């Protein structure tokens, strides 16, 4: 699964479809205002097929960190709203997966870090690889 470009496509999708004040980056939070997207452990294969393809839940987390509590909440809820859409489709650029659906947890207020408000959103994308 080394050539799987789901995380890159998810970041590109959010950066293209939303007018966010900060870009979604494939990273962890830094000491600056940022939107960080990263994979997390716990994904699992849900179905295996005879032709060696499989469906799997690919887990990820997104964190938003901004100085203004209102801006941070607005960014997070805009992202949540976009990823909650029934017609959501995040297409691979290299054919490494087929997107089936997105399962989201509710956004969570994590608190404050370095005088910035932090929110997090966890999800799992069901992909056929």
Radius of gyration over alpha carbons? 15 Å
Order of helices and strands: HEEEEHEEE
Low-confidence stretches: none
Helix count equals 2
* Strand count: 7
- Our estimate of the beta-strand percent is 35-45%
Q: For the report, how would you describe the main beta sheet?
A: 7 strands, mixed
Oligomer: single chain
Helical residue percent band: 10-25%
Main structural class: alpha+beta
On the 0 to 100 scale, the average pLDDT is: 94
How far is the first residue's CA from the last residue's CA?
8 Å
Shape: elongated
Q: Can you characterise this structure?
A:
This protein has 129 residues and is of the alpha+beta class. It is 21% helix and 41% strand. The protein has two helices and seven strands, in the order αββββαβββ. It is elongated, with a radius of gyration of 15 Å. The relative contact order is 0.25. The model has no long low-confidence stretch (mean pLDDT 94).
């Amino acid at each position: 699964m080394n050539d799987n470009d789901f995380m890159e496509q998810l970041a590109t999708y959010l950066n293209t479809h939303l007018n966010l004040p900060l870009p979604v980056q494939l990273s962890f939070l830094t000491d600056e205002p940022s939107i960080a997207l990263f994979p997390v452990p716990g994904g699992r294969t849900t179905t295996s097929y005879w032709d060696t393809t499989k469906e799997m839940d690919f887990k990820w987390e997104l964190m938003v960190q901004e100085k203004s509590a209102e801006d941070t909440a607005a960014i997070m809820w805009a992202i949540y709203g976009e990823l909650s859409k029934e017609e959501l489709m995040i297409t691979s650029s290299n054919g490494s997966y087929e997107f089936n659906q997105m399962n989201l947890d509710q956004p969570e207020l994590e608190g404050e870090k370095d005088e910035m408000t932090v929110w997090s959103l966890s999800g799992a994308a069901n992909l056929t690889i």
